[in-house]
Amino acid sequence: MKKLAYALLVLILLLGAPLALLVNSGVISASSLKMIANTQFGIGVESPSIDESGNNGIYQLPPGFTLQVYADDVPKARFLRFTPLGDLLVSRPHKGDVILLREDKNGDGRHDGLETVVDGLNRPQGIDFHQGWLYIAEREQVGRVRFDKGRAIGDYESIITGLTGDGNHWSKTLRFGPDGKLYLAQGSTCNVCVEEDERRATMMRFNPDGSGGEIFATGLRNSVGFDWSPWDNGLYATDNGRDLLGDDFPVCELNLVEEGNFYGWPYFNDNNVPDPDMGPDPQAANRTPTSPAHGFKAHNAPLGMTFVETSTWKGDFERVALVALHGSWNRSSPDGYKVVSLHFTNSGIEERDFLSGFNQDGDILGRPVDVLQGPDAAVYVSDDYAGAVYRISQEVSGLQGNIAGRSVNKLDEQAPPWLATSNLTAMATEGAQLYQHYNCASCHESIGTTVSLKGLNERLGYNAVIESLREARAPMPLFPLTELQQKQIAVYLLQPEDISDSGQ
């Protein structure tokens, strides 16, 4: 009966029958109808009010975390990226623009103003920074514009053209990898078929100027979000499994994407189960499908993902990625609609709920799209259904005091004794020279960095900074620093400007 219902759904869609017929025929629920309208046309619901935060129980978070509605005036919000100044860029494919939310400097928990950065675009989704350029992935091309001091400078130029944007999964996502290359994910035109354009349902790789395009990996039905693990630079990507095979099959996937690999679609689903509609893979002699690294529930639609820095987080959050589950449209009961944390352990990847509550007994309040960690260490989540951006933070308690008349970093459980007897001005000067010697700015002050040092003294203490220098984790290099030099860098990074400006 389920296969018959799904077949009827396809027939109705192909014939262009009124959407109301989908509900009246019993093929889908009213909530699924809303999800289809959201996916196809960007139609959503009213943004949540500030009162509808995790603090009053509507949304659920792990202990110690709180949620704020950072923006409720961004209809059709999709992908996120922070600027070097701490402002937040938001792409809106169904609005054809990229907007900027000014950093919350007055401390009221909301952005300080909205501006348009680039408009007149064709379904822009993926955005990223590289060497002073803002890159934007549109429906049929990739473009870029110079970006400086919080605004676009000069003309927008196309660097990758001739891409196809037809079919179901027209959106494209881009990010720059640790190798300085531009990675571009583009989904399939269909639920299950053989593509005419070999670039569809793949991950591609380009030079920053758009040249040298090559297919990096294939068989990825709709990999929308991807990021590199900080401990080994492994490229992980979400992938949406095919529809119309029932409520619980196949799983949506997290794949470890490696150059030259084939990830199964359209001939294999789930853990390399042959597809019932496609028959044998005609290239089976030349390729073997790669199994997913992790399986999400069927039809949960994982989209944006990011690996997060959790050294200041309380609880079990070592080696963690956050993934936005957009939620199902073709299940008999809706599922997904949350952000989950993936915990990379020695025994595998464990999935846990991180932000939930958008599904209130079938009444859908929101659909998470992208998730990103800000320079303030908080997590930001976009919601294209409610037209909102949420900010999730964790309260950190610790010692507050004063050493030698200067503020002690409040995140240290105990202020290091050497602070009280040190010449902090001299140490800051030496620390600045070491910072310049090892060219730390190339990573920590580059455009679009996810490891910004802005506001570091509000997040970390001396002990934590010294520990990060002593036990550096990839991609951060392990520098040959003495114990004194580690302290000097910590003082330079954490002390107020009045004692460290000599090193600027």
TrEMBL record:
Record has Iron as a keyword:
yes
Mind listing the UniProt keywords for this protein, alphabetically?
Heme, Iron, Metal-binding
Disordered as annotated region, ranges? 273-293
**Entry superkingdom:** Bacteria
- Residue span, Cytochrome c domain: 426-497
Full protein name:
Oxidoreductase
